[in-house]
Design goal:
- β3 and β4 form a beta hairpin.
- This protein has a 4-stranded antiparallel beta sheet with strand order 1-2-3-4, covered by helices on one side. Strands 5-6-7 form a 3-stranded antiparallel beta sheet.
- It contains 4 helices and 7 strands; from the N terminus they run βββββααββαα.
- α1 runs antiparallel to α2.
- The longest helix has 19 residues.
- Keywords: Membrane, Transmembrane, Transmembrane helix.
């Protein structure tokens, strides 16, 4: 089981991906405006249906722009009399700007593709998930004899 943060702003909210011999199960919260959780996306993908996986960096323009604007406004406010508000705006701007840098794991299947987006700092978790999927696809499924279940009971 792999747990990862889904956002820089809400770092305590975690997504989860489980890889076993038969499927890849994901439970990932979705955020509205990078702050408000509004849904939980659950997806089960059979391991035999996965054609390929890839990891890429992703840059989102809007959070970068919004973060830059908040940093500039915070600096202008800090130079005037609103030092506390200026520093707060700079901190929020930095966090929003950093949130624009993401990593994406794309899982290609016969029916389409499924994307898992995480902050750039969590990219190592995506590499672990990809390695686990590839290792599980290489391993043969354990064969169960017809009477093995009855013998174990």
């Amino acid at each position: 089981m792999f747990n990862f943060s889904i956002s820089w702003l809400i770092f305590w909210m975690k997504g989860r991906v489980e890889v076993d011999n038969q499927s890849v199960r994901s439970r990932i919260p979705r955020l509205l405006l990078w702050v408000f959780p509004y849904a939980l996306i659950s997806k089960d993908i059979a391991l035999s249906d996965i054609k390929s996986t890839s990891i890429k960096g992703k840059n989102q323009f809007f959070p970068l722009l919004l973060g830059l604007i908040l940093i500039v406004l915070g600096a202008l406010s800090a130079m005037n009399k609103g030092l506390a508000i200026g520093i707060l705006a700079i901190i929020i701007g930095l966090i929003l700007g950093i949130a624009g840098f993401k990593a994406r794991l794309t899982i290609e299947t016969a029916t389409g593709r499924f994307n898992i987006d995480v902050p750039a700092s969590q990219k190592e978790v995506l590499f672990k998930i990809e390695r686990e999927i590839q290792n599980r696809q290489k391993q043969p499924e354990p064969k169960i004899k017809e009477n093995q279940v009855l013998e174990e009971l």
